[in-house]
Amino acid sequence: FYFLPAKASDSDDSDSEAEKGKKKKGKGKKKKEERPPSPDIEFDSLEEFVLQPAQQGVTVKCKVTRDQRGLDKGLYPTYYLHLDNEKKVFLLAGRKRKKSTTSNYLISIDPTDLSRGGENFIGKLRSNYLGTKFTVFDNALHPDRALPDMSNARQELAAIIYETNVLGMKGPRRLTVIIPGMGKNSERVPIRPRSDNDGLLMKFQNRKLDNLIELHNKTPTWNEETASHVLNFNGRVTQASIKNFQIVHSKDLDYIVMQFGRVADDAFTLDYSYPMCAVQAFAIALSSFDGKITCE
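Above: the chain's sequence. Below: its structure in token form.
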């Protein structure tokens, strides 16, 4: 059972047969159908932009590409995030660290510099031992090295929880995403825990959800005709994959905070909206690539 994109006829951006015919006659040759692109987005500082929540009312449409070339890229691919429009502006790169006891991904604002000590390091994604729970951090200091008032300590930007799938390979994944809440002026509430015992995962486990936003993947509907699980990605996703998902708030299932899905073997679209930022969305996507034996 896979998450299939909804049929073209269900998609908001599909043309009717008559319209396709008109276009054909007018231009002499059929133009291939394209994904709706991202609006042009301009920013002065890449570092600031990737950590800022998307503007309200704007969906930032991106593309994730996976580079598996090279001796160790099969095991440790590099992932790149670009704006999905003509300019293809680079936003982020991510790669799994090699000598780490748990899955640990570095996220950088330079496609050629994925080192922990480099000045382009912008955040990281770290998993638990089972690979079912993840935490996303920014690039500030570890609590042990921070000032006593924690003002320069790293923030937790998200927690991602994959539920063990009792159906094994037979059902879609279920995931929960916890992100900091939003304060005045649409700014993220800083979450700077002194230890893991006070982090997003423990807050969620203990149901201490003040100043936090709890999100879940949208449950796909079962389609008898195609015998598969279906979600409508409005033309942004073109291939069936267990990795395809949409993230929503339980109070508004129609507002897509983030969606992610396959368009080619090593290419995926990733779209995010307020209150999410690029680093949060990219890290959630990276977690979906990680091998979770217990979730499959």
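Confidence is low (pLDDT under 50) at residues 7-32.
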